[in-house]
Design a protein that fits this description.
single chain, alpha+beta, Multidrug-efflux Transporter Regulator, Chain: A, Domain 2, four-stranded antiparallel sheet, 10 helices, 11 strands, 40% helix
Length: 220
C-alpha cells in the first residue's frame, strides 16, 4: 500500500489523472471522513505525525472529486452523450487538415477543451466535433487539393503556390511575390498536401508577369 502526504497526492492526481485537487482540500476531506494518517519522515528527515495517508483512504475520502477521465479509442476519440471529442491530432487526421492548421484555429478562437486520456493513457485536451467543424469551416470547404509537388489543375489550367512555381521556373519567391503584388494578380484558394489553405496562381499568369526574367535567362 502506498502512502504519501496530501500535497504529494495532489501532485500525483494532477500528473496521472488530470484532476486538480489542492492538498488543503484533500486534508479537509480526510478529516471529514475520519481518516487518520500515519507518522512518517519528510524528504529532509523530519518526523511528521499523522501526515501520511494510504491511496485507498484518499480515494475513498475524495471519491466525489476523483471522477475517472474518459479514455479515447485507438483513433483518438471518445463520446460523451451524443458528442464526439478528439485530440488535435485525431481531428487533423480525420478532417485532413494539418495539425498546425487545427491548433492555430483553436488558439485563435480560444477554444477550451476537456481533459481525457488517449489510447496510451496520456492526459490530453479533447475538443468537441461541432466546435472544431465551426472554427475550421473554411479549411473544410470543398476546394482543390495540391499534389505532393504543390500543384493542381482546374479548368484545364495548372495552379501552384508561389513556392511551387519558384521551384519549377527557378525564380526566387520574393521576385515572384513582388510581381504578383505589382500586377495585382489574384489567385484562388486551395489546400496544400498537408491540408493547409494557401493561395494558388495559374501557370499562364505567373509566366506572363515573370516573362522579363525568363527572357533574360533564355538569352543569356
Amino acid at each position: 500500500m502506498r502512502y504519501a502526504n496530501a500535497e504529494n497526492w495532489a501532485k500525483y492526481f494532477k500528473e496521472t489523472e488530470g484532476v486538480q485537487i489542492h492538498g488543503v482540500t484533500i486534508r479537509h476531506k480526510l478529516r471529514e471522513a475520519g481518516k487518520i494518517g500515519i507518522n512518517g519522515r519528510d524528504k529532509i528527515g523530519r518526523v511528521l505525525r499523522n501526515a501520511f495517508f494510504s491511496e485507498a483512504d484518499v480515494r475513498s475520502a475524495c471519491a466525489d472529486l476523483l471522477q475517472p477521465l474518459p479514455q479515447a479509442d485507438k483513433n483518438g476519440f471518445f463520446e460523451i452523450g451524443d458528442m464526439k471529442y478528439g485530440t488535435i491530432r485525431a481531428w487533423s487526421k480525420t478532417l485532413e487538415i494539418s495539425v498546425t492548421g487545427v491548433a492555430g484555429r483553436i488558439k485563435a478562437y480560444n477554444l477550451q477543451g476537456i481533459k481525457g486520456k488517449d489510447s496510451q493513457r496520456n492526459i490530453r485536451d479533447f475538443y468537441p466535433e461541432y466546435a472544431i467543424c465551426q472554427i475550421c469551416g473554411d479549411l473544410l470547404a470543398d476546394i482543390p487539393r495540391a499534389d505532393p509537388e504543390g500543384f493542381f489543375e482546374k479548368d484545364s489550367q495548372k495552379y501552384g503556390t508561389i513556392e511551387a512555381w519558384s521551384r519549377v521556373i527557378g525564380i526566387s519567391t520574393p521576385a515572384i511575390s513582388s510581381r504578383i503584388k505589382s500586377n495585382n494578380l489574384q489567385g484562388i484558394k486551395g489546400k496544400d498536401r498537408s491540408g493547409q489553405v494557401q493561395v494558388f496562381y495559374p501557370e499562364s499568369a505567373i509566366r506572363k508577369i515573370c516573362a522579363d526574367i525568363l527572357a533574360k535567362r533564355k538569352n543569356s
